[in-house]
Amino acid sequence: MSPSLLLHRLLQLLPVLLGVTVIVFGMMSLTPGDPAETMLANQNATPAQIATLRHDMGLDRSLPVRFASFLTHAVQGDFGQSLFHHRPVAAVIAERLPATVELSAAALLFSLLLAIPLGVIAAVHRGGLLDRLATVGSLFGVSLPGFWFGILLLLVFAVDFRLLPVSGAIDYASQPPTITGFLILDSLLALRLDSLGNALAHLLLPAITLGLPMAAILMRVTRASMLEVLRQDYITFAEAKGLSRARILGLHALKNALLPTITVAAIETGSLLGGNMVVETVFGWPGLGRLVVESIFARNYPLVQAAVLLYALTYVLVNFCADLLYTVLNPRVRM
Amino acid sequence: MTEPLLEITDLRVAFHARHGKVRAVDGVSLTVAPGECLGIVGESGSGKSVTFAAVMGLIRPPGRIEAGRIRFAGRDLVGLDAASYRQLRGRDIAMTLQDAQTSLNPALTVGTQIIEVLAAHGEGNARARAVEMMTMVGIPAAERRLGDYPHQFSGGMRQRMMVAIALSCRPKLLIADEPTTALDVTIQAQVLELIASIRAKLGMSVVLITHDLGVVADYCDRVAVMYAGQIVEAGRTADIIGSPRHPYTEGLLASVPDLHNLDRPIRPIEGQVPDLIDLPPGCRFLPRCPKARPDCAKPVPMRAVGEGRNVRCVLT
Ligand SMILES: Nc1ncnc2c1ncn2[C@@H]1O[C@H](COP(=O)(O)OP(=O)(O)O)[C@@H](O)[C@H]1O
Ligand code: SF4
Ligand SMILES: [Mg+2]
Q: Is the Cβ pair B117, A242 closer than 8 Å?
């Protein structure tokens, strides 16, 4: 894909993001309750004091003016002050983001590494023992709530066997120096193997919990598309050419079968964002998901607003990347 | 007579379906001599493709070779181990599939798809030989097109590409399954001429599967007519087209225009190919045969009539 086309596709994302911004702003404006009153709720403020705060917050201006101001600040990454951190929202989010990115990436990696080989094997040995086990297993994976499985894992591996830590992202003693904010990366950069091991041990259970429902879905998608691909003439022709089984399955079949898997993985990555909130709460993970849950309970509107926008941005970008990958894998849509 | 290159004896292939056993190939015997071109004709569903899928070792469950022998260059192929079969396929026996539009992998470049055959069979200089082969089948600017994907090729070019891939290791036998069905008449002729000229150049044998007797007349030394999983008539092309003995062959000939006698009306064969599950023991053509007699309901064996000619009909 040419750079100009890439730019074109990126620009196409702008209307979507603008739309999301309008919705987020609208929802916050329509929510009953005046943020100024909420902030001063238990402080016996006089109506005059509330009015002053409203003026300071710009709430007495017209809706379009407020939106324009919100937008100009938002594009500069300025979402105002977090109500109980007394620090800029952007700074608070930036601090929590790496942990969530690390967890989501680990979950995605885990589910792809599990789902693709299992899906391929299940399709190739259709109706065999492994196929049936995987199908039943994926049914459980799809239908059980993620946190239920997470709690089970916690009880078995962390509480009963004490093999893995119960909560958090790293032990205090193993904390690597902060370079990028990503624990795994920082451990590697600082050549701290102890930190790396400790971070991975903390990461394992939450990543599995978050990734398993997604793995179940991806396994079924891969199996179905693999079965479809294996019936195609080009697979028969590849066999007629005397190619090895590994090449037929691993290149000829998989390169076509992965297209649906990638599309679904991209969509499901969006749902990882939601899953994060639950899993981070269960495992005491110091990420954005838990922060958002806490902020919703605390009516910390500026932070929730910024987080929703960030989720939308992530979602759009993930889908954009999936589009790009799809283009690489599928020459027919390449331009 | 020289030892045949391919010899199929009493081959039976069945597919197990929920409602019964589909006997797609039921007692087929035929031979292909070195350098010979054998035509296989018959309406669709008569078992032509399945017969040669069996030769390629590509019958997959629910299909099964139930009986019979397939000998190729002195080796028995039924029951041959997977690794030996893999060495044979694409190198000694090559096959082009019925539908060129769907037989090339849409996600891989044509270069990859031709070079990999050469590489799989340990041929050196794979890239140069791929270009040479593509040029030989008439793909212009072959070197430059190696990086193209199948969807960038026209239908005729894809057919040529498939032929190039099949021929790249210079096989002893090429099985061309309806190589012209999806193509327009001019390109049809080009592809057939191409196969004929390469056959002459490489001295290979060709099995040409088609439902077009005109094609057989122009390109095949001998022809076998298949109906409902059996060969009903086989012999030298000139004999069979000049004086068909089986009512089905007559029907096939009457259903295509006669270029020497354009006044003759075209009469399609009435009725349909029978369901291959639970066939009655008699002649399979009986329900559609205009010459049927009572004893046609008993099993009808293949009978030799004259030199190298066989017919399965009570009338002969
Ligand atoms: N994979 C399969 N499963 C079930 N039946 C099949 C399969 N392949 C072929 N058949 C059956 O075998 C018969 C012969 O098919 P085929 O050899 O493709 O016919 P032709 O090539 O002469 O048109 C058909 O009736 C078809 O239904
Ligand atoms: S055996 Fe009888 S039914 Fe069959 S082709 Fe001959 S005449 Fe017709
Ligand atoms: Mg066929």
A: yes
Q: What are phi and psi of A257, to 5 degrees?
A: -70, -25
The tally of CA atoms less than 13 A away on the side-chain side of residue B101 is: 6
What is the rounded distance in angstroms from the CA atom of residue A196 to the CA atom of residue A170?
9
With bands split at pLDDT 50, 70 and 90, how would you rate the model's confidence at B245? Answer: very high
Question: How do the domains of chain A map onto residue ranges?
Answer: 14-75, 94-329
CATH architecture of the region B6-92+209-311: 3-Layer(aba) Sandwich (3.40)
- pLDDT above 60: residue B274: yes
Q: Report the chain A residue with the minimal C-alpha distance to residue B105.
A: A234
DSSP secondary structure code for residue A331 in this structure: G
Interface touch A233/B105, C-beta < 8 Å: no
Angle at the Cα of B97 from the Cα atoms of B95 and B100, rounded to 5 degrees: 130
- Select the residue from B59, B98, B103, B207 to test the A interface by mutation, using most A Cβ atoms within 10 A: B103
Q: How high is the pLDDT of residue A335?
A: 45
Please list every residue in chain B whose beta carbon sits closer than 8 Å to the beta carbon of residue A233: 97-99, 102-103
Spell out the residues 6+ positions from residue A198 whose beta carbon is closer than 8 angstroms to its own.
Answer: A170, A171, A174
Q: How far apart are CA A25 and CA B142, in angstroms?
A: 58
CA nearest A154: which of A198, A223, A204?
A204
Helix residue spans in B137-285 (DSSP H): 142-145, 155-167, 185-202, 213-219, 237-242, 247-254
In chain A, whose CA is at the least distance from the CA of B117? A241
pTM for the model stands at: 0.83
For the CA of B313, the nearest ligand: 2
Cα A222 to Cα B260: distance, rounded to the nearest angstrom: 57
CATH superfamily, region A94-329 = MetI-like (1.10.3720.10)
> Is A238 close to B105, i.e. CB distance below 8 A?
yes
